[in-house]
Design goal:
heterodimer, A: mainly alpha, 76% helix, B: alpha+beta, Arc Repressor Mutant, subunit A, 3-stranded antiparallel sheet, 3 strands, 19% strand
Chain lengths: 213, 101
Amino acid sequence: MKNNLEQITKRTRQYWFSDGFVEIVNGVIFLLLGVYFYVQYSLPSGSLWLFLLQAGFVILLIGAIFLGGRLVNILKTRFTYPRTGYIGFRTPPKANRWISAGLALLMVILLLALFNATPISLNWLPATTGFIIAAFWLISAARVRVLRFYFLAVMSMILGAGLSFAHIGVLQGIAAYYSGMGLILIGSGGLTLAKYLRQSPEIDENPAIQGNS
Amino acid sequence: MSIDPRKFADVDRMIHEPARLMIITILSAVDSADFLYLQRETGLTKGNLSSHLSKLEDAEYITIEKTYRGKIPLTICKLSGNGRKAFTEYRDQLKYIVDNT
């Protein structure tokens, strides 16, 4: 009873991120994106494989996000819900989703316009990517008050800016950014998962008793 | 500024009870939550939690769905439209009392 209501609500909202699976799965997607850009860099220009890879980027990305979401659910069903219970989160209203999609599209158009207007700014693609992804982590941190998301935002900005200043090339820079950020996410998620599993051992009792309300 | 003390009596007692207030607060932040989560978060015993859930269900503030995940029984609780409205009113009443005393 000692917990106040605000803390209960806060903890409930943070629950989705308490096991680190979201970061681990996102980290794997980032690593795969790193491999994707590295393969693009390795392929000779004008090759059929390069064309197919570039043409299929959106499909690969949407597929990875969809499968990633499914994987998080499977992992939570296997490891999290039996230990600390299940929460179904409210889906945001359709209007909010359209606003988010519109803002994302506007951001992409603005970025493309910026890079077209000033060709040298392509060197800053890793930094720009790092700052956009940092903004995502900062928004998430502010919404759910998970402190390690601030760390992820700072790491994203440092990594992106560092790679841009290193001038290692656009594709190599992007590949290195996604690979590096993927490893950071897996590390952060892995530590969170280890802590979660240590603090929440599997309940070993007669399951028939559970939920007899 | 002071308010009519009878305002205190208007507070919804179904929600005002601390354990049920915790349950309703949790359910107001999500779409649904299972028995295990509610038990861990509220710190109540199974029997106590079951009793409070039954009272909230009888008042039509929550809905309870009994299902299975594999072979494990699963009790999913959701705040109903009535429950959400009552909780909003309760919070407004409480805020009014706090602001005016």
